[in-house]
Design goal:
By secondary structure, the chain is an alpha/beta fold. It contains 12 helices and 13 strands. The chain folds into 2 domains: about 120 residues, Rossmann fold, CATH 3.40.50; about 160 residues, Dihydrodipicolinate Reductase, domain 2 (2-Layer Sandwich). The protein is about 30% helix and about 20% strand. Bound molecules: NADPH dihydro-nicotinamide-adenine-dinucleotide phosphate and N-acetyl-L-glutamyl 5-phosphate. NADPH dihydro-nicotinamide-adenine-dinucleotide phosphate binds next to helix 1 and helix 12. Keywords: Amino-acid biosynthesis, Arginine biosynthesis, Cytoplasm, NADP, Oxidoreductase.
């Protein structure tokens, strides 16, 4: 299949290149850039030397439509809102890694992203690409809104409980920590070495744009949901997200019941792995991979449930889940191009 990547010079784009290199169904990749036309990709990323020889092409919708069949948009907010529609009108399939097409209510998007939303028709056409929970819709979709990194870790962790309406939703607290690659490649004051080395910060308290995305998806499963508390932190590492989620059980439940619920729910989902009783995952255990690892317990004294989930933010939180969705859209095995072990240590 002929694939295009817009934004290949960013972290999400370069990780797509890493994974697609060993994807058996992808033979031909064209790279597009808004700022580095004519430059070889390995000049921007020397680690790709002798692996990718492509020269970055300008973002010209007509040319893209002649060159590729499916295009990944690994671009900052605002870009997909502009270019998804013209690309789709040319018959291309689009997998968007940004947040532009995830929020179905334009007013909510504009409120949290502080920018103009995409046209409603293109938002309505996009399918939210949480692979494990939306397979049937993804299989028929032409446009995918790939989930945000924090929402991926959060929704996979909460889904079994929320779908069965087993927790009081106004007690949910999502305490999330991310490595700095989540902020992209462009230098920023928040993430540069002196700011982050030997440091740990909470940021965007009560203002993070992933809050409405998490609420929107949880509401599809339990319409009792008012709001959740979601709090991200930056930690001094490059890749990885850990969410520690606390929620109160509606009715008395045992540890055994809880474990069986998660085991049964994800029994056929290769990329979601449940830790045995008393064990909790750490970010290194999924580093560089498409896995989401989950540990769960209940304090039978307080009936408070604690769920710990980890992902690699760039892979399951972006490029890997985007490829999982490409596989589903094409009827290929979900593991194509993604079947490798995490990098450890
Ligand atoms: N990093 C992560 O962990 C995750 C990222 N995401 C989302 O994926 C998207 C990409 O993220 P990431 O790769 O980290 O970001 P980066 O900042 O690393 O890269 C974004 C790329 O977009 C391109 N770009 C910038 N402005 C424009 C423009 N006006 N038109 C077209 N292309 C443009 C740039 O390439 P060039 O100058 O060559 O055009 C740049 O390299 C973002 O929306 C992000 O929020 C989602 C989940 C996780
Ligand atoms: C550490 C860090 O800065 N992380 C980013 C999350 C990146 C992301 O997933 O953003 P999109 O929803 O646009 O895809 C943030 O907090 O904004």
């Amino acid at each position: 299949m002929k694939i295009g990547i817009v934004g290949a010079t960013g972290y999400g784009g370069s990780d797509l290149l890493r994974l697609l290199h060993q994807h058996p169904k992808v033979s031909d990749i064209t790279l597009y850039s808004s700022s580095q036309e004519g430059v070889h990709i390995h000049e921007s990323y020397p680690h790709l030397t002798n692996i990718y020889e492509q020269v970055l092409q300008p973002i010209d919708i007509d040319k893209i439509s002649q060159q590729v069949e499916t295009v990944f948009l690994a671009t900052p907010p605002g870009v997909s809102a502009e270019i998804t529609e013209p690309l789709a009108n040319k018959g291309l399939k689009v997998i968007d890694l940004s947040g532009d097409l995830r929020i179905t209510d334009r007013g909510v998007y504009q409120n949290w992203y502080k920018r103009k939303a995409a046209n409603q028709s293109i938002i309505d056409e996009a399918v939210y690409g949480l692979s494990e929970w939306n397979r049937e819709k993804i299989a028929k979709a032409s446009i995918i809104a790939n989930p945000g990194c924090y929402p991926t870790a959060t929704l996979l962790a909460l889904a079994p409980l929320v779908k069965k309406r087993l927790i009081d939703l106004d007690t949910v607290i999502i305490d999330a920590k991310s490595g700095t690659s989540g902020a992209g490649r462009s230098p920023s004051e928040m993430t540069h070495y002196s700011e982050m080395n030997e440091n740990f910060k909470a940021y965007q308290i009560n203002q993070h744009k992933h809050t409405p995305e998490i609420e929107q998806e949880l509401r599809q499963w339990d319409d009792d949901l008012p709001y959740v508390t979601f709090q991200p932190h930056l930690v001094p590492m490059v890749r990885g997200i850990m969410t520690t989620i606390y929620a109160k059980a509606k009715e008395t439940m045992t540890e055994e019941f809880l474990r069986n619920l998660y085991k049964d729910t994800y029994a056929n989902d290769h990329f979601v792995r449940l830790r045995p009783n008393g064990m909790y995952p750490s970010t290194k255990e999924v580093f560089g991979s498409n896995y989401c690892d989950i540990g769960i317990t209940i304090d039978e004294r307080t009936q408070r449930i604690t769920i710990v989930s980890v992902i690699d933010n760039v892979v399951k939180g972006a490029s890997g889940q985007a490829i999982q969705n490409l596989n589903i859209m094409n009827g290929w095995s979900e593991q194509e191009g993604l079947a490798f072990t995490p990098v450890y240590p």
